[in-house]
Amino acid sequence: MKKEWKIETKISHYAEERGNYEGAVVPPIFQNSLFTFENWDAIDAAFDDRINTSIYSRGRNPGVNIVEQKLAMISGGEKARLFASGMAAITAAVMHFLNAGDHVIAIKNIYGPANNLITVYLKKKMEIETTFVSGNSIDEYKAAIRPNTKLIYLESPSTAIFSIQNIESICKLARLKNIKTIIDNTWASPIFQKPLNMGVDLEVHSCSKYIGGHSDVVAGLVIGNAVDIDSISVNEFELLGGKTAPIDAWLLMRSLRTLPIRMKAHQESSIKVAEYLESHPKVETVNYPGLKSFPQHELAKKQMTGFSGLMAFKLKTTDLSQIKIFFNSLEIFKIGVSWGGHESLVYAPAISYLKELSPEQFAGLGISLGDMRISVGLEDADDLISDLEQALKTIN
């Protein structure tokens, strides 16, 4: 693989030893649970290196490994490990760095289930303590550090409000204090942001979003240095059993070939949609890091090379009946909880947050009933704008 090749070329060919499968332009699906050996010595040697040897597909599977190598290369990491879901990946990464009684610093607007994992489940099971910060100032992190602080958990841009953290500065502080860092990089994808190059220890993704891109795969990803990933492989990965199915890995390999092209298309349409919404009289605010008006736009440009298709905007009404009329009037934007696929989606964060959080916690996130989250897919941008226009007309 030539170093000077562009990412689009590398994705198509990296880690594919076509001579091993009769020159097939697409590697096969290794749809098997175990692998056999010629003799005692062969399987004995395999157990001595089970991280790099295919013995049982709960551990290593050749087809899955091809995709892991591609994803590590794209992200600038030494190794990657695929999981059955984004939460399986987050759980493994977090538990890799924590022991009973440790303290975590996290930004306020992390993914809801990740929040529950750290603040509810691990608090009960392992007495993990958590301090939340807005993430806007390095001084917040300095003030939050305790003697037992072992992890800083980032998500940039963050859930719901898309706030940006200064990744490089936070990682410098963390290394100075011997604190590990994890970042959820799902929003930007490995194409538009490379946190490992900024000092992050582990990068996690929901591959169900842009990496998969077709709304037909649920999978997760952890990327980092070889020591951490190998340790996760023989501990959290094997013991918790959150392995990726061979067919899901094969579908992710298919998706990776078009990831750079899809991300460019998502960005192009999203900027048009965001600018349209920003100019509409019935929209109060638009949260999208790609807008020049976004408060942290310059920091976003410094850390990312592009912007994905997920954004939020606030309607100029808190009348739930009016909000529901708008919500239900959209035609191209389908109602759904996920994002990052080929299809455009709409969701109101209040629907789930009001079930999971107290009114005080909900208000503390800076979210209101009128907040809408949309995922701009691969449809024509003008059609998406027309759909939003006709739905906005329904609001009195």
List the helices and strands and how they pair.
Elements: H1 7-13, H2 40-48, H3 62-75, E1 79-83, H4 86-97, E2 103-107, H5 112-126, E3 129-133, H6 138-144, E4 149-155, H7 167-176, E5 180-184, H8 189-192, E6 202-206, E7 220-224, H9 226-240, H10 246-256, H11 259-278, E8 283-287, H12 297-303, E9 310-315, H13 320-329, E10 334-335, E11 345-347, H14 349-356, H15 359-364, E12 371-375, H16 381-392
Parallel strand pairs: 2-3, 2-4, 4-5, 5-6, 10-11
Antiparallel strand pairs: 1-7, 6-7, 8-9, 9-12, 11-12
Describe the structure.
The protein has two domains: 7-30 and 61-256, Type I PLP-dependent aspartate aminotransferase-like (Major domain) (Aspartate Aminotransferase, domain 2, 3-Layer(aba) Sandwich); 259-392, Alpha-Beta Complex (Aspartate Aminotransferase, domain 1). It contains 16 helices and twelve strands. It has helices at residues 7-13, 40-48, 62-75, 86-97, 112-126, 138-144, 167-176, 189-192, 226-240, 246-256, 259-278, 297-303, 320-329, 349-356, 359-364, 381-392; strands at 79-83, 103-107, 129-133, 149-155, 180-184, 202-206, 220-224, 283-287, 310-315, 334-335, 345-347, 371-375. The strands form two sheets. A seven-stranded mixed sheet has the order 1-7-6-5-4-2-3, with helices on both faces. Strand 4 (149-155), helix 7 and strand 5 form a beta-alpha-beta unit. Helix 4 packs across helix 5 (112-126).
